[in-house]
Amino acid sequence: MTFTKAQDVINYLYSLPKLHEKADLSYIKKVLTFLDNPQDKVKTVHVTGTNGKGSTSYYLSSLLQKAGQKTGLFVSPYVFEFNERIQLNGQNISDQNLVEIANQIELILAKIRRENPAFSLVTFEYEVVMAFLYFAREKCDYAVIEVGIGGEHDKTNVIMPEVSVITTVGLDHEKIIGPTLQDIAREKSGVIKKNRPVIIGNVPKEVLPIIQQKAQEENAPLIQLGKDFKIIPNESLTLKTKSQKLSFLPKPIVEGYDVGVAVEAFSMLGLPLSQNNIIDSINRTVVPGRYQVLQNNPLIVLDGAHNIQAVQNLLNYAHCEQKRRQGQVRILIMMMKDKDIAQVFDLFHATDEVYLTTIDYPRAAKKKDFPQWIQEKYQYMSDWQAAYQNLKQKSQTNDILLVTGSFYLVGNILQMETKNAGSRY
Q: Where is the Mur ligase C-terminal domain (predicted)?
């Protein structure tokens, strides 16, 4: 197969299977071996976590670029376009490079299929191979690699990173890497490698011993939030470590944790960067669709929170703002059918105005997919554009409007607002 257009590549990727029968790394390792192991030709930082791994990856990428490093970034999901998944120095991979890289992989797959006609990569494997191949071809100094799901069995776990990161451990993807929090912690600790430092963020105390034990087994130096570095939210966001104290522009506390983890991970790499440049890099970083403020009066925040931990964090932030502003919290939420819908809706306050919506996507929950008590309690608006515009107009200066539940909804609204503004957000 030969591709000529980027959209053909993207369509093909989404036509591939999502999972193999066995959750091992043999398929991706075979392809990477045929490609001369591009993942070993670039220094990497490996980032996992139930929440915060995307933000941490963006902050790390910015710090590396500020330090003069040619930096690759592999993240998911995307907000504006697929090409965001694979970035070089903050720029999305071009359509031309996407096509070239995919065609290179197709040549290798054709060779493998001569011996094994049924051989195939799943979607995420193909994307990971594309990223490693691109970063090696462009001779990156470093690449920040965000895990897809989990850690030990994730398709990105074919690298020997300079530093590993575990941002948080919470309940999400329980059917794949659970069902318990302990199972999830064990899976995520799979990114810890022998003699390589690991930075951990806001990890629950009950699973901390699992990660500590894995680090000890691998002789991996462990740097821990709350013990080795602290985040202090005041007028500004302050990071305090054993060797320095840095103050950034104000951010929600959970974003602050991600900042702290990113700065600590960067410090492990031994690259020279002044305190002023670290502060400037963090302050200038925009993480798409994560606590992204569209406007302040009323406060409109877009965040792709789609699991219990992330939604709870977002609501904590909104209710703190509510006390300060003395306004109304409104929430426009869309969720996927396979998420913990009932548990998420248990988190809302009685005074929150919550509105349900959906988008044109197979996994998106429609009204009938919500539990009966949710259908009866909250208003459902099938047209997400009309719902958003309605709530935006309804919100007064001191009110707060959250758009959440899915990066798909957040991405759609960001694109709509960008189009309305006549320029890219």
A: 289-407
Residues 272, 335, single domain; the answer is no
In a domain, 1, yes or no: no
Can you say whether the dihedral through the CA atoms of 354, 339, 191, 64 is positive or negative? negative
pLDDT at 425 over 70: no
**Residues 101 and 119 placed together within one structural domain of the fold:** yes
What is the average per-residue pLDDT within 182-199?
Answer: 93
Tell me the average pLDDT across 139-161: 93
Domain count, the chain: 2
Paired residues of 56 in beta bridges:
none
pLDDT at 5 over 80: yes
- Which of 256, 284, 312 is the last residue in one of the domains? 284
* Same-domain check for residues 87 and 119: yes
What are the backbone angles phi and psi of residue 277, rounded to the nearest 5°?
-70, -35
In sequence order, the β-bridge partners of residue 72 are 88, 143
275 and 299: one domain?
A: no
Instruction: Verify that 395 and 338 share a domain, yes or no.
Output: yes
* pLDDT value of position 77: 82
Question: pTM for the complete prediction?
Answer: 0.90
pLDDT score of 204: 87
Check pLDDT > 80 for residue 178: no
The answer as to whether 391 is a domain residue is yes
Domain interval for residue 251 = 6-284
CB contact at 8 A, 225 and 198: no
